[in-house]
# Entry
Amino acid sequence: MQAQSLILRQPDDWHTHLRDGEMLRAVVGHSARQFARAIVMPNLRPPITTIAAARSYRDRIQAAAGDHGFTPLMTAYLSDDIDADEIARGFAQGVFTACKLYPANATTNAEHGVTAIASIHRVLERMQTIGMPLLIHGEVTEPDVDIFDREAVFIERVLTPLLRDFPALKVVLEHITSDDAVQFVSAATANVAATITPHHLALSRNALFAGGLRPHLYCLPVLKRERHRLSLRRAATSGNPKFFLGTDSAPHARGDKESACGCAGIFNAPMALESYASVFEQESALAKLEGFASEFGPRFYGLPLNTRQVRLRRAAQTVPDQIIDGTIELVPFHAGETLGWRFEGLVDA
Ligand code: DOR
Ligand code: ZN
# Structure
């Protein structure tokens, strides 16, 4: 008999975008309902580069999240002129959990990102010494590199030399999209891990053009060929602790997605666990979901495992076509589709 419900140690989201202001208030509850903690991306305008900015952003997130018991884990946005002392102090004070490396102009609000790894050598050295994780958006930005090859080329040209220079640096290659990344991370030392999103597990690049252009499925790194998706599914469901959950939920208002120059990002927070559970079930690997969602991430970061539990029930659930909050209109991942699982919330102790 098929299990009718699934009880898991409460998961964390090791990569998400919560934005700020009205958008923060519209989206944070969706993450806080399912996840105990989340690694919060710093690509605001202006980006989060100081302890003071991170503290005040953390306060705004907590105020907006209400009483879910949700803990935002803050990250610092690396730029060419980032202050290594500020980063180290923020880590020591427990304000910064990690640093985020955006290659300049690689994605949304990445224009202040790093132009060359050489310019942040001192910071990376310091991070390696103090055990502070580096979270990487792994794509090169050279316009002559085909967009579907940017992750593989980043691994070859940037990540391989970086790990040669800093072999003990804790590195998370974020939102991996290719078999090249799966192979690289699998073969790397234990200080190198990767997050995998629901959308890269569910879809290949064909989905972007199914019956017409699908702006709500556009994200960066862009969806890849089917063989890459299959490799990601094998990695996520393998039980290898180097691969763990990071949604990369990245909300943009409907009008900014349905535009002549649409923003990159998929808002998957509302059905994140249901989406992952569907993939693990399709792969006959539901027993592997808890490790991926709730155990491998905290172990990599050296944080305690959550003690609360959550329940998912086997029940058809149709995802709304849109989510409206005040003046903000969002189209969630899986809009209009029916998923086979429903997140029910915390299991009473
Ligand atoms: O699709 C994406 N959206 N990829 C990113 O790397 C950034 C994110 C965003 O902030 O919108
Ligand atoms: Zn992201």
Remarks:
- The chain is about 35% helix and 20% strand.
- The pocket of zinc ion (ligand 2) is lined by residues 15, 17, 41, 248, 250 (CB under 6 Å).
- The chain has a mean pLDDT of 97.
- The two ends are 27 Å apart (CA to CA).
